[in-house]
UniProtKB/TrEMBL annotation, chain A:
Subunit (UniProt): The complex is composed of two ATP-binding proteins (CysA), two transmembrane proteins (CysT and CysW) and a solute-binding protein (CysP).
Principal location: membrane
Signal peptide boundaries: none
Job description of the protein: Part of the ABC transporter complex CysAWTP (TC 3.A.1.6.1) involved in sulfate/thiosulfate import. Probably responsible for the translocation of the substrate across the membrane.
Organism per entry: Halopseudomonas salina
Gene3D superfamilies: MetI-like
Protein name: Sulfate ABC transporter permease
Membrane topology: Multi-pass membrane protein
InterPro entries membership: CysW_permease (IPR011866), MetI-like (IPR000515), MetI-like_sf (IPR035906), Sulph_transpt2 (IPR005667)
């Protein structure tokens, strides 16, 4: 027994310890992650395929899908542009307040989504100082789609920058400096030198932004006003159906969102695999195949 | 994988930097965006709460039902983040140290709570833990009620914030130099001793960060919680829901007052975590 122990030089390498820990981890994964996922799709199909289809093609559900995609289509490009500019700023230049800026963009991660929604409602709602001024010009942002887009931009703005900053900091700016010396313009520099280096992190940042934009609930529920067929996004529609005791309908809508979540995880795995493959191609390829 | 080393920059970088184009443009875009999206909305809250007298403000934020919601939220978030500390450390350990069939799948799936919309997580957990649900029916036989009790809040909070601990501990565990551990093991120390004396001290700053992030997220969690909590006043109402309730009563002042408390708490936590990380990183590089 003691001989066996001495032969392993790292903690937890004894078979009994190792397989107990792996067993617990797999059981937890099954209970916490796999079964809940199975339940979503099982509930969606619990009334049969026809019922699921009828719920999916219900006019309100289709409208919610459309609105959700519309909101994501506006939010993602805005945060993509902001994220790239911010990451360029804080990783390529040294200036006072740089660290404070990096902390500031984490605010949406720390703030409760309900509080985020409330902040927008208080400013742009008809009682707010900006909202009442806008109301004079017949511009209504809250309880309408612009409000949903605005809070979604708030909630999802750190994702792209958060993915890019560590990577760009690590890569350093030598390649770009060489580009400048060779006479590249700003845009050429970004497109030819920076973009190829950050491509995968950028894709993952966009995917995360999209996943959160599509699924945001708390902030959107404060500013949307849940007007069926008007300001009901897919997550709000899930809540509405659930409270109407239409469990199948709620889970049909939920399974669409779960599908997007699974796609996000898949893209993340691919991106991580591509990133880890870049420096040492042979090594990691065999790992995948093995 | 190599996030920890990200802070190291070439020594010459500071001076050479302004060679690159786009400083004013990226500064302009970033400041404009941050001012409009992050800072401007706070003015609405300030205007709204400054219309209250101090006594009114105090009365709203110390209302009995609101205080009960602080307690439930803090307790549930505390327990949830401690559970995640244990489970997250175990998952990170198994994913880094062992090879087994399906490891890549488990690793990928670990981010599901972040990717899954909170409302979906909420109805799923509520269905699982309901009295006749897949888990609830077995727990009911043991006399444990999860759905529509404060315990449900803990379940929802720990589900949605589980990846924080796994993903902060994982890279540190991967980058850990094996020398000390191997030396201690070869001298015949037991697994538990080496873990306690050598590995845990190296891991705990990351573990603490993960638990703190998990706690912060749990304090603000809304979507997942409200479906499973039952939302009984004084018993299972979280603070985010109190804000929502006040809004539905069109009591904007009260909603703002409670929100200002939540906002300040989360900003203090965010600042604390950042300072903690800065100190911890400095210590790592100082060695």
């Amino acid at each position: 027994m003691s001989k066996h122990r001495n032969s392993s030089l790292r903690v937890g390498e004894r078979p009994w310890t190792k397989w107990t820990l792996i067993g617990i981890a797999l059981t937890l994964t099954l209970l916490i992650l796999v079964i809940p996922l199975v339940l979503i799709f099982a509930q969606a199909l619990s009334g049969g395929v026809q019922t699921a289809w009828d719920n999916l093609t219900d006019a309100y559900t289709l409208h919610a899908i459309g609105l959700t995609l519309f909101v994501a289509a506006l939010t993602v490009p805005i945060n993509l542009v902001f994220g790239v500019f911010l990451a360029w700023l804080v990783t390529r230049f040294e200036f006072p307040g740089r660290k404070a800026l990096i902390t500031l963009i984490d605010i949406p991660f720390a703030v409760s989504p309900v509080v985020a929604g409330l902040l927008y409602l208080l400013l742009y709602g008809s009682n707010g100082w900006l909202g009442s001024w806008l109301a004079d010009y017949d511009v209504q942002l809250m309880f309408a789609w612009p409000g949903i887009v605005m809070v979604t931009v708030f909630v999802t703005c750190p994702f792209v920058a958060r993915e890019l900053i560590p990577l760009m900091q690590q890569q350093g700016s030598e390649e770009e400096e060489a580009g400048v010396i060779l006479g590249a313009s700003g845009w050429q520099l970004f497109r030819r030198v920076t973009l190829p280096n950050i491509r995968w992190a950028l894709i993952y940042g966009v995917v995360l932004t999209n996943a959160r934009a599509v699924g945001e609930f708390g902030a959107v529920s404060v500013v949307a006003g849940n007007i069926r067929g008007q300001t009901n996004t897919l997550p709000l529609h899930v809540e509405l159906l659930y409270q109407d005791y239409n469990v199948v309908g709620a889970f049909v809508a939920a399974s669409l969102l779960a599908g997007i979540a699974l796609l996000t995880l898949l893209i993340k795995s691919v991106v991580e695999w591509r990133q880890s493959r870049q420096p040492e191609p042979e090594n990691h390829q065999s790992e995948i195949l093995g | 994988m190599n996030k920890v080393s990200a802070q190291v920059l070439p020594a010459s970088a500071g001076k050479a930097k302004r060679v690159l184009p786009g400083f004013s443009l990226s500064l302009g875009v970033s400041l404009l965006f941050i001012s409009l999206v992050l800072l401007l909305p706070v003015t609405g809250l300030i205007v709204q709460t400054s219309g209250m007298t101090l006594a009114e403000y105090w009365a709203v934020i110390t209302d009995e039902r609101v205080v009960a919601s602080y307690k439930v939220t803090l307790w549930a978030a505390g327990i949830a983040s401690l559970i995640n500390g244990v489970v997250g450390l175990l998952m990170a350990w198994v994913l880094v140290r062992y090879e087994f069939w399906g490891k890549r799948f488990v690793d990928a799936l670990m981010d599901l709570p972040f990717a899954l919309p909170t409302a979906v997580a909420g109805i799923t957990l509520a269905a699982l833990f309901a009295e006749n649900g897949w888990y609830g029916q077995y727990l009911a036989r043991l006399g444990i009620e999860v759905a529509y009790t404060p315990l449900g809040i803990v379940v929802a909070m720990s589900f949605t914030s589980l990846p924080f601990v796994v993903r902060t501990v994982q890279p540190v565990l991967e980058d850990l130099a094996p020398e000390d551990e191997e030396a201690a093991m070869s001298m015949g120390a037991s697994d538990l001793t080496v873990f306690r004396r050598i590995l845990f001290p190296a891991l705990w700053p990351a573990l603490m960060t993960g638990v703190a992030l998990s706690f912060t997220r749990s304090l603000g969690e809304f979507g997942a919680v409200i479906f499973i909590a039952g939302n009984t006043p004084y018993v299972s109402e979280i603070t985010s829901l109190m804000i929502f309730v006040r809004l539905q009563e069109f009591d904007y002042a009260a909603a703002s007052a409670i929100a200002s408390v939540v906002l300040m708490a989360s900003l203090v936590l965010l600042l604390g975590i950042n300072l903690w990380q800065a100190r911890y990183l400095k210590r790592l590089h100082g060695r």
